[in-house]
Design goal:
Strand content: 15-25%
Number of helices: 15
Structural class: alpha/beta
Radius of gyration: 27 Å
CATH superfamily of the largest domain: P-loop containing nucleotide triphosphate hydrolases
Distance between the termini: 74 Å
CATH topology of the largest domain: Rossmann fold
Shape: elongated
Largest sheet: 6 strands, mixed
Number of domains: 2
CATH class of the largest domain: Alpha Beta
Strand order of the largest sheet: 6-7-8-3-9-10
Helix content: 25-40%
Number of strands: 18
């Protein structure tokens, strides 16, 4: 168990953290977050005794951190730094065995127990198959696993990691985080995160730092609110519930600027999150945006309401009503252009497409999102047929938000010149 009680940390006369109080133990992955300069790395350095508090106390299993000898502390706490570039041509196994130093007397040689524990550490981190390879010849993701395996060879009770997924590709990041989640069932794992969505997905508990203090602490649902993220990072976001995991999913909102769209009215028919970036981008360009029909539990509805975009809505799991259809027809008649994302179509929202097809609306742009590949038409083919008829009547197909914005600009400039 690690426990901090009213800890203050300073560099010279500059206070970095103040009044830090929390505890963490085996069975949880604790994430430390905050903007650059908020003291995340300094907090890890304090727990590992690299930085000494100017006030307060840090306890390890109810003992003050200062009571431990260096080797004794290394048997309790292991640290994985932000980066560990290899400088010598050691094998993977040799580097991992270096983690056994806290358990060895001076000048003692490795024994069978050391080799067994190093082997278990490599097995736990998935690198046993590259044990004989040089650390100068492996990938960044493999090297990160080697450094974690070396830390595990210390047999610590607490594992501290500073941005464990930095400089790794997506597959390597997920693999490392899955491994840390598994490790946290047996030991305490405390890690600094920059990616809020990774922290929300993998962490059991979060500490959000801001202005030298803990701004919020608790489970991801309670910590990640739009208000707290705005206070800590100075950005506006939407926070929705991931339908697959139940964890928060954070998306930044574009800031609105006046970019000369002249207040032209654009209505967006979307859903399932495919319109989130589009809605923000259109408003950012200065268009007068409206949206719908959307279910009130849809991500696009959350984004629209957060941006103050007028939205035609229906309750969850409800078909499009006659009232909503009348509102949609009025919005389509009032719009200078309509942008439709392919989305997921079923009998409940098919009314959107029927209304669009019969409205006579001009300048229809279909954003045929790559994320829509695969099964998307659950209407027995009726949605696909309507989309094909719209294309045959002149609807233009784009593939991404930037090309959609460029197309709208081109269309409106052309109209202005012809007028």
């Amino acid at each position: 168990m690690i426990e901090l009680q009213e800890v203050d940390l300073e560099y010279g006369a500059e206070k970095v953290l103040e009044g830090i109080t929390f505890r963490s133990g085996a069975g949880e992955l604790l994430g430390i977050l905050g903007p650059n300069g908020s003291g995340k790395t300094t907090l890890l350095k304090a727990i590992s005794r690299i930085v000494r508090p100017s006030n307060g106390v840090i306890l390890v299993n109810s003992r003050s951190l200062q009571e431990f000898g260096q080797k004794e502390l290394s048997r309790e706490i292991a640290v994985v730094p932000q980066s560990s570039e290899p400088k010598f041509d050691f094998s993977v196994e040799e580097v991992v065995r270096m983690g056994r130093y806290p358990h060895k007397e001076r000048f003692a040689t490795e024994d069978e127990e050391d080799r067994r524990i190093a082997s278990l550490a490599m097995e736990a981190t998935g690198i046993l198959h590259i044990a004989s390879r040089s650390v100068l010849e492996i990938s960044g993701g493999e090297l990160q696993r080697v450094i974690i395996a070396r830390a595990l060879a210390q047999e610590p009770k607490v594992l501290l990691l500073d941005e464990p997924t930095s400089h790794l590709d997506l597959g390597q990041q997920v693999s490392i985080l899955e491994m840390l989640k598994t490790l946290s069932r047996k030991i305490a794992v405390i890690a600094v995160f920059h990616d809020l969505n990774y922290a929300a997905h993998y962490c059991d508990r979060l500490i959000l730092l801001h202005d030298h203090r803990i701004l919020a602490m608790g489970d991801p649902e309670s910590v990640f609110t739009p208000e707290r993220i705005r206070a800590a990072f100075g950005i506006d976001v939407t926070v929705r519930r991931n339908p697959l995991t139940g964890r928060p999913a954070i998306s930044p909102l574009w800031r609105r600027t006046e970019n000369g769209a002249g207040g032209r009215r654009v209505h967006v028919i979307s859903g399932a999150g495919e319109g989130a970036d589009l809605l923000s981008a259109l408003q950012n360009e200065g268009y007068a945006v409206s949206a719908g029909v959307l279910s009130v539990n849809d991500t696009d509805y959350a984004v629209a309401t957060a941006l103050g975009i007028p939205c035609i809505s229906e309750p969850p799991f409800s078909a499009v009503s006659e009232r909503a259809m009348e509102e949609l027809k009025a919005a389509l008649e009032n719009a200078h252009a309509v942008v439709l994302t392919r989305g997921l179509w079923g009998r409940g929202n098919l009314g959107n497409l029927h209304a669009l097809e019969t409205s006579g609306a001009g300048c229809i742009v279909i954003v045929d999102c790559p994320s829509g590949e695969g099964e998307w038409d659950f209407t027995g083919g009726e949605a696909s047929e309507i989309l094909e008829r719209l294309k045959a009547k002149g609807a233009v197909v784009t593939r991404e938000v930037p090309s959609t914005l460029d197309l709208l600009k081109t269309i409106f400039i052309s109209r202005k010149n012809s007028d």
